[in-house]
UniProtKB/TrEMBL annotation:
GO terms for cellular component: membrane. It holds the Pfam family Aa_trans. Residues 52-446 form the Amino acid transporter transmembrane domain. It is found in: Membrane. It is a multi-pass membrane protein. Keywords: Membrane, Transmembrane, Transmembrane helix. GO terms for molecular function: L-amino acid transmembrane transporter activity. This is Amino acid transporter transmembrane domain-containing protein. It comes from Zasmidium cellare ATCC 36951. The chain crosses the membrane at residues 53-74, 80-104, 132-154, 160-180, 192-213, 241-262, 274-296, 316-335, 356-377, 383-408, 420-439. InterPro entries: AA_transpt_TM. The keyword Membrane applies. Belongs to the amino acid/polyamine transporter 2 family.
């Protein structure tokens, strides 16, 4: 159905939302015979079924791409901006990214042959759009994988009381992530996603309770009367403010992975249901955790936040969180590896057949992504700085601007109604705000990383030093 002729936005019919089998082109139905998908081609019982993720599994995958690394930096963001501006900025970014996430699902239903953000880029901007967005997509997830490895090394240092060289812990994290990331389909990873979400949520809620009942945070002066110095409003420098906003973007920047997730859903028309569940839970968790931890810890909140409640609670919290951090790493290695794998073998029988070429290509992709991420994690071993840099430079580019252009691409020739003008204004706002955050946030993040290298006790590349004791600047 051509939405240009209809003169309005078109979406999947509401009354077909719960139909037992999809009826749109390119959908795989339940059958023992070979079926055809617009992206994966023929899917048979002889190879991996890339279209086997249910809507609940989609919720788990969505939540795990977001709740993990990002939530651990939110209390520090609130310290930088002040509690009130921090919450307001978080809600604004949640609204924008939720709309962007929604557009991903709508765009996929309208363009069945779209697998990744690069396919959308080619439709809108041609070959240049495909290559630029595709390259940014891979680079973004490699950086996120590096952040995950760094987070795991912090956890291992905490649990073991710096029982080994940090560089060795990063290497262990890389090996484990490559192994688990090599699982062929997202459908087989959904159970890991549920485990990961459960572990990370349990960990951060225990942290929240711990900071509420303890006398003072671990990094605060341990003698005399102590009172939290949290602030409703703060006065950060411009680089600090941009870096904080970039960390919030990173906390919601699972958006580019949603292309891959919706492409592997059995019924992508249920995508919006999964998205609503995911974003509601994520936003409530972020606000709750960030507010409580910051109010009780003030300027002595640790980054990552799991180190805020003392040595014993840090061990407990990280012990619980490590499986969740490992699942995050699994997903963020799997997603870019799958993108490269599909781009190389798309249209070939080896894409869905368990052949030697299939396995050599797939394992080559996961190992390559993991190794590059390992180098990044070892070269920039500053958790807060790396998170904000990734959020600024690539998170906004993957979660803001393309979705504004995607809406304009599908609806520019529609009838000029009041709603159309409002939506055009919104789409342009998303594009402009994303560009502003990307430029300013990258600057702020780079300044922060440089400062951390020059400060006393700063980390260095491939360092053996303990990286589990950082705190927010007072």
């Amino acid at each position: 159905m051509n939405n240009e002729k209809m003169g309005k936005e078109t979406y999947p019919p509401h009354d077909e939302e719960l139909a037992p089998f999809p009826s749109y082109p390119g959908i795989v139905e339940d059958s023992k015979e070979a079926e055809h998908d617009a992206v994966f081609g023929a899917i048979t019982e002889d190879g991996p079924n890339y279209r086997n993720v249910g809507w609940l599994g989609t919720v788990a995958l969505m939540m795990k791409t977001q709740i993990g690394l990002g939530v651990l930096s939110i209390p520090t963001v609130f310290h930088t901006l002040g509690l009130v501006p921090g919450i307001i900025c978080l809600i604004i970014i949640a609204i924008i990214t939720t709309w962007s996430d929604y557009i991903v699902g709508v765009f996929k239903l309208r363009h069945r042959d779209v697998y990744g953000i690069d396919d959308a880029g080619q439709l809108i901007f041609g070959r240049a759009g495909r290559e630029i967005l595709g390259g940014a997509f891979v680079l973004y997830w490699i950086f996120v994988a590096g952040s995950a490895m760094l987070g795991i090394s912090i956890g291992l240092n905490s649990v073991s009381t710096h029982g080994a060289c940090t560089a060795a812990f990063v290497a262990v994290a890389a090996i484990a992530g490559i192994a688990l990331g090599s699982i062929q389909t997202l459908g087989r990873i959904t159970w890991l996603a549920w485990v990961g979400v459960t572990c990370i949520l349990t960990s951060i809620f225990i942290l929240t309770i711990a900071v509420g009942v303890q006398d003072r945070p671990a990094a605060a002066p341990q003698e005399g009367v102590w009172k939290s110095d949290w602030k409703a409003f703060n006065s950060p420098t411009l680089p600090e403010a941009f870096a904080a906003l970039s960390s919030l973007v990173f906390a919601y920047a699972g958006t580019p992975a949603f292309f891959s997730i919706v492409s592997e859903m059995h019924d992508p028309r249920l995508y919006t249901r999964s998205l609503a569940c995911c974003q509601t839970v994520v936003t409530v968790v972020y606000i709750t955790i960030g507010t409580v931890v910051y109010i009780y810890c003030g300027s002595y909140v640790a980054s990552p936040a799991l180190g805020s409640a003392g040595v014993l609670m840090k061990k407990i919290c990280y012990g619980l969180a490590l499986p969740g951090l490992l699942v995050t790493e699994t997903l963020v290695i799997h997603v870019p590896a799958k993108y490269i794998f599909i781009r190389v073998l798309r249209g070939s029988k080896h894409l869905t057949a368990n052949s030697m070429i299939h396995w050599a290509s797939w394992l080559g992709c996961t190992v390559a992504i993991g190794l590059v991420a390992y180098v990044i994690a070892s070269a920039i071993p500053v958790f807060g700085g790396l998170v904000s840099l990734v959020g600024a430079l690539l998170g906004t580019l993957m979660s803001f601007q393309p979705m504004g252009f995607m809406w304009l691409y599908d609806n520019w020739k529609n009838e000029r109604t009041t709603r159309w003008y409002l939506m055009v204004t919104w789409a342009v706002f998303v594009i402009v705000s994303g560009t502003f955050l990307m430029i300013g946030g990258t600057y702020g993040s780079i300044v922060g990383i440089i400062d951390s290298y020059t400060a006393d006790g700063g980390s260095s590349a491939w360092s053996c030093a303990d990286n589990s004791n950082s705190v927010a600047a007072g």
